[in-house]
Structure formats: C-alpha cells, structure tokens
Backbone:
C-alpha cells in the first residue's frame, strides 16, 4: 500500500486486495490521505483473516451439482445420496457457499430432526453427506468456493450409540432356524414358498457371512465361488481391491437351490412392482422374529451375531476385520471382549490339561522311584 502525490491537495492511495490492484483519490492534506490509508490497510487485513473470500460468488446449487458428478453418483448408495443432496438444495441451494457457515449448517441439521422428524441415525447420514461435500468445497475446490475451512466441523452431531452388543444366543439361533424352516414350503404342499424362501436366503447369508443387507442384495450368481468356498462382495474398497467372505457348505447348498430369475444376474433382484431400487426387509423380518419369539433385534444385528460368534469360537480379530470390510481395526475391536470372555469361561479346560501334565509328571516320578 502506498500514497502518491498527484498535485497540491490531491493524493492517490494504491493497494492490492483479493488479487486485484485498487486505488482511491483523496482531496485534502497529506494527513487525511495517511488516515484513509491506515483505515484501508486495517480493513484489508481484517478481510485476510475471514473464513471466506467475500468477493467469490459461488452458489450452493453449483457445488451440489459438482459434488454429485464427482462423488455422489459414484457411490453404491447413489440413490439415497441423490435424495439427501436434493434436500440440501431445497434449503440452501440459493445461498452462496461462503454464506453457509457453521450456524447455517447447525440450523439445517436441527431442522432434520425438529421439522422433518428424521431419526437420529438418518439425520447423521444426511449430515455425513453435507460434511463430505463441504470438505471438498474447502479443500480441492476452495479457490472456486472461497471456503478455507469446513463449516460442518463446527456442528455438534448427536450420533446414536453404534456400539450395540445385541446378538443371538444359541437358543435364539435354533429358534430362528425353526421359524425359517416352518415357512419354507406352502402350507399342506411340497411347493416352495418363494416369498419366505427369499427371506430365508437373505437371513442365512447375513448370519453366515456378516454381510450388510445392501451387499447381499448386490450379490450376483457369479459371486458364488463354490470350489473355493467364498462369496465375492462387490464393495468399493481402496485401490479397487475385492473383498471375500467365507461361504460354508450349508450356505452353498441354500444358494444353489434358490431359483434364479430369468434374465437377471443378481441372486436377489428387486421384487416385481418395486418402486425403488432400494430393497427393504423390515416387515417380513419382523414377522419372522415374532414367530421365533425373539425381541429387541434388528436385521443389522445378524451381522453382529456373525462377528460375535466368530470371536467366541476362537476367530482372529484381524481376519474378522477383513471379512466385515472394516477399514479401521478399531471398528472391529468391539468384538474382542467377547473372545476374551469366552476364553475366560473355558479356563476349566486349560486346568484339566494342566492336571494331565501333572499326572504324567507324578507317574514318571513313581517309575523312577521304583527303578
């Protein structure tokens, strides 16, 4: 910033701001020009420390379109992602990105549960999309958007407890299997009940592999590797790696006898007349639980059941992380305590082995004494 005297009583103040050269002519004494220069300099420095660049007018609607093209549309949950970002567009699309600060994101998030009455878990999924989008806006697209930090980082999110420990006991596992078998055939006939056969396979795959429901619905006939006893899971992993889960012989038999739909390569394609590509199991699964007299249980708990019994049967924690598709071992460590508890309960077996060793030692001492 500088002051140039143009003539007596006329000065020009020059400075650079926002990547542009600016100037202002001042009529009056030199002291007035210096005073205005100090104010301009102070104002410029204040703007440098703002979270956003005020001169950039990039709208949220443009950011949403860009995010959908580069990220949202490429996710496995693209259909759900689309509805979420359209909800963001309807509320914030007209604003400039620089106007969407922490308070704006906080109001939007509170509106999810307060006005739209979404469950805490669903609201968190919406927030995760917002956070991811604003993270891209404040990093790789910061020059276009004017954001220097993610405003969603300033929001406190009420995340539901995801460390649910509910899994089926041995007795509940038997009851569930009985309930599945009872509805395998149409009443009084030898004809397969296709509706319940579909649910049966869905449940058996979930409980036998620990796969998520979305992963099971994405299974293709070519994913069943019978000779190797594996199922290939079509999840997007880093570096394009494929994930595999074990397929027990009993599960392989269930998959082999499930009737294929002509012209469909998915094992469990959407049912005829389905309005959405997303598939749900809530209703039929609830009926199954009622017949089996199992309470306080969700479909996702079948995944917990697999993981819990895997560890209680002596499984390796790191192998379990690979099977479940966890990117961070900390997500799997919740099951480690089950392995420890089970080992503690079977301590009597270790004591029996120790006794056998002691008995052999005493026997050798007796033989040595007689010799």
Residues:
């Amino acid at each position: 910033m500088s002051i140039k005297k143009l003539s007596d009583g006329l000065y020009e103040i020059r400075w650079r701001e926002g990547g542009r050269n600016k100037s202002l002519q001042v009529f009056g004494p030199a002291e007035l020009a210096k005073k205005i220069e100090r104010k301009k300099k102070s104002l410029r420095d204040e703007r440098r420390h703002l979270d956003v660049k005020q001169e950039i007018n990039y709208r949220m609607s443009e950011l949403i379109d860009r995010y959908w093209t580069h990220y949202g549309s490429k996710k496995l949950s693209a259909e759900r992602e689309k509805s979420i970002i359209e909800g963001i567009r309807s509320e914030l699309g007209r604003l400039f990105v620089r106007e969407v600060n922490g308070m704006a994101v906080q109001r939007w998030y509170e509106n999810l549960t307060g006005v739209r009455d979404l469950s805490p878990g669903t609201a968190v999924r919406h927030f995760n999309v917002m956070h991811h989008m604003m993270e891209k806006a404040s990093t790789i697209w910061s020059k276009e958007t004017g954001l220097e930090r993610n405003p969603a980082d300033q929001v406190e999110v009420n995340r539901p407890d995801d460390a649910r420990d509910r899994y089926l006991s041995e007795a509940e596992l038997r009851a569930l299997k009985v309930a599945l078998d009872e509805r395998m055939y149409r009443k009084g006939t030898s004809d397969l009940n296709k509706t319940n056969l579909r649910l049966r396979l869905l449940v058996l795959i979930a409980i036998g592999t620990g796969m998520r429901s979305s992963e099971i619905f994405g299974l293709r006939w070519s994913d069943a590797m019978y000779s190797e006893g594996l199922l290939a899971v079509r999840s997007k992993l880093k570096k394009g790696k494929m994930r595999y889960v074990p397929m027990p012989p009993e599960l392989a038999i269930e998959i082999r006898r499930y009737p294929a739909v002509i012209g469909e390569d998915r094992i469990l394609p959407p049912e005829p007349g389905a309005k959405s590509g997303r598939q749900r199991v809530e209703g039929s699964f609830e009926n199954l639980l009622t017949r089996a007299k199992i309470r306080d249980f969700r479909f996702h708990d079948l995944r917990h059941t697999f993981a819990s019994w895997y560890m209680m049967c002596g499984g390796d924690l790191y192998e379990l992380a690979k099977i479940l598709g966890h990117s961070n071992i900390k997500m799997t460590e919740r099951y480690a305590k089950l392995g420890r508890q089970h080992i503690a309960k079977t301590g009597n077996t270790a004591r029996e082995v120790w006794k056998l060793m002691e008995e052999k030692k005493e026997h050798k001492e007796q033989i040595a004494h007689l010799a």
